[in-house]
Write a structure and sequence with these properties.
The chain is of the alpha+beta class and 615 residues long. Helix content is 48%, strand content 16%.
Length: 615
């Protein structure tokens, strides 16, 4: 029979394990920021420290899976919505091909559960514009216009063209339309538009609360304003309308559009942070902002679903980045009519605003009727045009989100979960240790040391994975690690029982250790491979907490294999050379030797048939 191949020296194997352990410890200690406590704490999930998590599954209108570009754009929009809520600590991640996960650890915020509403892309004629006096966070939503000026035109084959202003510019035509207060007052219908349409019960209730908060006289005076109030020229009105400063974005959302536009204390910061869907229907006039400018907008006559395609490219004539936008058959007629209205409205404001959710993405100034495709040009960077094109394209291919998992957990309940998880892991580890010492005696020390090493390496791996890839330990992850204790127990049971079989066959423990290892390692590798395969299937085909369970189980299984090969087998080889290892009182293997026919006391160091003759 062929002899088993001589393995690496046990000392070298232990040295390799020690090197790995030291490198991980150095990475943990020197790879983090903050004090020692911060460096030694892994990222904990919401169910362990409290907070809110929302899992959203994207679904397209045509039933096909969303594209990567659509998911990236949806992620950016949702991220903007979350930041608009004032919860910038939240994390927005794409999970798989169709899921977006929003997490806010440390505190609960039920508003996150509403962020998955379908984005609303609408094209509205600008009725007037004014400078914003208090915009402290102009980019709270999805603003893409970063250039100093812009223009939109039909293709070369068309005779119509238009120009646009993304924000105040040195250009005289752009500055006139976006920097100074507009001389165009909102129409009477604009001021009343907030109440002309049927009002939902929740809006009516909030509107009544706002009117009570401000006072009937203040609301009545604000409703009578027909142009933006100049606070510097009229200090009395500045004092009268001061209560508007106390309104929240939710309260601002229920004000009539004319009041939102004319009262300067209704700032763009509050307008941008309105709940998604505050501009309830396209048939309502609305107020929205781009950085530094507040717009009074007419009803939406072109929607995002009217756009068939939007692309970012370079203009061959001047080498500048542009965005081209084309429409479907119905959308083209609507777009042409919209540009005609903007061109013929008889005012200085000839802009058409592209509004995504609550924010103006772009506001081209129409120079003539556009019967064909539109082309937006200006001092854009590649990133600007790509973002704007994605936002326009997103409106053409809207994604709806189906909530898959939404939960809010208090910090107190999270702490209870953490304590319960640690207690369960401790009890499981203690039971394994007690059983191993009861059944295997000295071998129980090998098992205990293996579990301690494995646990330490898992803990360091959690910290490193949290820093490098954002992995967070959840309650399900705790369950994965507890299950991994059973995987570790399987591996040493297989090894030790094979070792007993070798000794029963007449071999001494010293010679039985390498033979048992050769036979047991195949079974150990096979068993762990099946566990890893199951963890991989769960990870790639599940969502939410199940993925955390699968990932934790996979990591623990891999590290258990490292410990089995670099610690458990070499330490067994060293123990097999000691007399205590063969003692019936210390090692359970001694009893097996005594039970063999024709043997008593301590087993010889080698089988009698292989012992050299005495000289």
């Amino acid at each position: 029979m062929a002899q088993p191949q001589a393995p690496m020296h046990p000392g070298r194997q232990l040295g390799v394990l020690g090197t790995i352990f030291v490198l991980l410890a150095i990475w943990v200690w020197f790879g983090g920021d903050g004090g020692w406590r911060d460096r030694l704490e892994p990222n904990l999930g919401l169910d362990l420290i409290g907070g809110t998590t929302v899992t959203l599954q994207a679904k397209t209108d045509n039933g096909k899976p969303p594209t990567k570009q659509q998911m990236e754009t949806a992620k950016d929009i949702i991220d903007s919505r979350v930041n608009g809520l004032g919860v910038s600590e939240a994390e927005v991640l794409i999970e798989g091909d169709t899921n977006i996960v929003v997490s806010l650890p440390g505190k609960s915020d039920d508003r996150l559960k509403q962020i998955g509403q379908t984005a609303e892309l609408r094209f509205r004629t600008v009725l007037g514009s004014t400078a914003d006096i208090g915009d402290t966070n102009p980019s709270a939503s999805a603003s893409a216009s970063a250039s100093d000026s812009a223009s939109a035109s039909a293709p070369a084959s068309a005779s119509a063209s238009a120009s646009a202003s993304a924000k105040p510019s040195a250009s005289a035509s752009a500055a006139a339309s976006s920097a100074a207060p507009s001389s165009v007052a909102p129409s009477a219908s604009a001021s009343a538009s907030g109440s002309a349409a049927p009002v939902p019960a929740d809006v009516a209730q909030l509107r009544a609360a706002v009117q009570k908060k401000l006072g009937d006289s203040v609301m009545a005076a604000a409703a009578q304003e027909t142009a933006p109030v100049d606070l510097a020229a009229d200090p009395a009105k500045a004092q009268l309308y001061a209560p508007f400063k106390t309104l929240t974005p939710e309260e601002v959302a229920v004000l009539p559009a004319g009041v939102q536009f004319n009262i300067p204390f209704v700032t763009c910061d509050k307008l941008n942070n309105r709940p998604v869907g505050s501009i309830r229907t396209p048939e309502q006039q609305a107020v929205a902002c781009e950085p530094g400018t507040k717009y009074m907008l007419d009803v939406a006559k072109v929607l995002g679903t009217d756009v068939s395609k939007a692309d970012s490219s370079i203009d061959s004539t001047n080498g500048k980045w542009i965005v081209t936008m084309s429409f479907n058959s119905k959308g083209q007629d609507r777009w042409t009519n919209l540009t005609r209205e903007a061109w013929n409205n008889g005012t200085d404001s000839k802009q058409v605003a592209v509004v995504l959710d609550n924010t103006v993405v772009s506001a081209p100034v129409i120079e003539s009727v556009i019967p064909g495709d539109a082309r937006i040009t200006g001092s854009f960077t590649k990133r600007d045009t790509e973002l704007l094109a994605n936002q326009l394209q997103y409106g053409a291919l809207p994604l709806s989100f189906i909530p898959q998992d939404a939960q809010s957990i208090s910090a107190t309940l999270g702490s209870s979960h953490l304590e319960a998880g640690v207690l369960a892991a401790g009890i499981g580890l203690l039971l394994v240790v007690l059983y191993s010492f009861f059944y295997y005696r000295l071998l129980g020390l090998v098992i205990t040391l293996s579990l301690v090493l494995s646990g330490a390496m898992v803990y360091m791996a959690l910290i490193i994975l949290g820093r490098t890839m954002g992995f967070t330990l959840t309650l399900a992850g705790f369950a994965g690690f507890i299950v991994s204790l059973g995987v570790a127990a399987d591996s040493f049971v297989i090894y030790f029982e094979r070792l007993k079989d070798e000794i029963r066959d007449g071999r001494s423990p010293r010679s039985a250790v390498p033979r048992a290892w050769v036979r047991a390692r195949r079974t150990i590798i096979s068993a762990n491979a099946i566990t890893l395969l199951a963890a991989a299937v769960l990870y790639f085909f599940s969502i939410g907490s199940v993925k955390g369970f699968a990932f934790a189980l996979g990591v623990a299984t891999i590290l258990d294999l490292v410990v089995v090969f670099l610690f458990r087998h070499p330490i067994m080889t060293l123990f097999a050379r000691s007399k205590a290892f063969l003692s019936p009182r210390v090692s359970g293997l001694g009893r097996i030797v005594e039970q063999r026919p024709g043997t008593t006391g301590v087993a010889p160091s080698a089988p009698r048939r292989n012992r050299p003759k005495e000289v």
